[in-house]
């Protein structure tokens, strides 16, 4: 069965398996690139990527396995990533809240009253805020490697802080330099599980090659942030699964534990030896958990 998206951008929509791969219009001046896998008659599951990340960080195989479990899997490029709208580097005309508001607007554009929201890192923060401000849109939450940034939570590891303090921008016109730059951050964020260099490099290369302007992704670090919301976590009513690595150097495990304690009836799935990442080694544990949670 094919599902037609009623508000597409100027580019043609390409239909497959009941879904769409297209540039979708949210407002007159905002278009996001969206891809879906599975049957449109199945329960919708929206994957929300992290900081400066396109949809490519949700690998095809992972999406296909979720779709095989009876989910209509939707992923999209944030503004300034992938094929979505981009702004001049250093001159983004949106806020962090605007990025969060893109989630319900995207559901509107796709004709979906609600969806299961699966967010990684920044995407997990967006999922929390959608559940707070647009509670009827969130059927459930899966919060991966994320936080609500409470004042009493531990900071990033000293090693990761040292890495970021020494980090400089690459030559954005040099494809290999950009890939190496992003891959170095992937290594710094990983845990003690074996780092699959070839697989990670392939994901980064795909991200770079799909991007309209890869330099624009740095805009996410320069936009206005959102007001604190950790004190409101008790208001979330969507069934919530928290997934967190025991060796996350950006948001130490305490961040995930705090979410699971503050959100009513939330459950916590700890991933041993995992950092701020979702490596394929964890899928045999994480994918069944997501399917159970969103059933």
Strand portion: 15-25%
Helical residues, percent:
25-40%
- CATH H-level superfamily title: Alpha/Beta hydrolase fold, catalytic domain
Tally the helices: 8
Kindly identify the CATH topology.
Answer: Rossmann fold
Mean pLDDT, to the nearest integer, reads: 92
The ordered H/E elements are: EEEEHEHEHEHHHEHEH
C-alpha termini separation: 21 Å
- In angstroms, what is the radius of gyration? 18 Å
How do the strands line up in the largest sheet?
1-2-3-5-4-6-7-8-9
Number of strands: 9
For the record, the CATH class is Alpha Beta
Structural class: alpha/beta
Shape: globular
Query: From the coordinates shown, what is the CATH architecture?
Result: 3-Layer(aba) Sandwich
Q: How would you describe this structure to a colleague?
A:
It is built from eight helices and nine strands. With 295 residues, it is α/β, with parallel strands linked by helices. The protein has a single domain, classed as Alpha/Beta hydrolase fold, catalytic domain (Rossmann fold). A hairpin with a 2-residue loop joins β1 and β2. α2 crosses α3 and α5 packs across α6. The protein is globular, with a radius of gyration of 18 Å. The protein starts with 13 loop residues before the first strand and ends with a helix.
Which features characterize this protein?
Rossmann fold, 8 helices, globular
Summary, kept brief:
The protein is an alpha/beta fold. The protein has helices at 60-68, 96-109, 122-133, 158-165, 175-189, 197-210, 253-262, 283-293, and strands spanning 14-16, 19-27, 30-37, 43-48, 71-76, 115-120, 138-144, 240-245, 267-271.
């Amino acid at each position: 069965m094919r599902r037609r998206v009623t508000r597409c951008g100027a580019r043609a929509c390409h239909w497959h398996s009941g879904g769409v791969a297209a540039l979708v219009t949210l407002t007159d001046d905002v278009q996001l690139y969206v891809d879906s896998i599975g049957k449109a008659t199945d329960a919708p599951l929206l994957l929300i990527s992290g900081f400066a990340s396109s949809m490519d960080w949700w690998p095809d195989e992972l999406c296909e396995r979720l779709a095989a479990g009876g989910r209509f899997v939707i992923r999209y490029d944030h503004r300034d990533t992938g094929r979505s709208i981009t702004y001049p580097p250093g001159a983004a005309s949106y806020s962090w809240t605007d990025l969060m508001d893109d989630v319900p607007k995207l559901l509107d554009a796709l004709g979906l009253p609600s969806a299961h929201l699966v967010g990684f890192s920044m995407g997990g923060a967006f999922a929390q805020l959608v559940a707070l401000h647009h509670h009827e849109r969130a059927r459930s939450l899966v919060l991966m490697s994320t936080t609500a940034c409470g004042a009493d939570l531990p900071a990033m590891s000293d090693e990761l802080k040292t890495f970021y303090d020494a980090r400089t921008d690459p030559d954005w016109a040099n494809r290999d330099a950009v890939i190496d730059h992003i891959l170095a951050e992937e290594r710094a964020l990983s845990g003690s599980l074996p780092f699959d260099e070839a697989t990670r490099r392939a994901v980064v290369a795909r991200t770079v090659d799909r991007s309209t302007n890869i330099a624009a992704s740095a805009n996410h670090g320069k936009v206005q942030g959102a007001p604190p919301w950790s004190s409101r976590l008790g208001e979330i009513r969507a069934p919530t699964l928290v997934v967190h690595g025991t060796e996350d150097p950006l948001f130490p495990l305490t961040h995930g534990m705090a979410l699971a304690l503050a959100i009513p009836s939330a459950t916590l799935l700890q991933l041993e030896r995992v950092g701020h990442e979702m490596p394929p080694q964890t899928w045999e544990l994480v994918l069944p958990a997501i399917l159970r949670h969103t059933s």
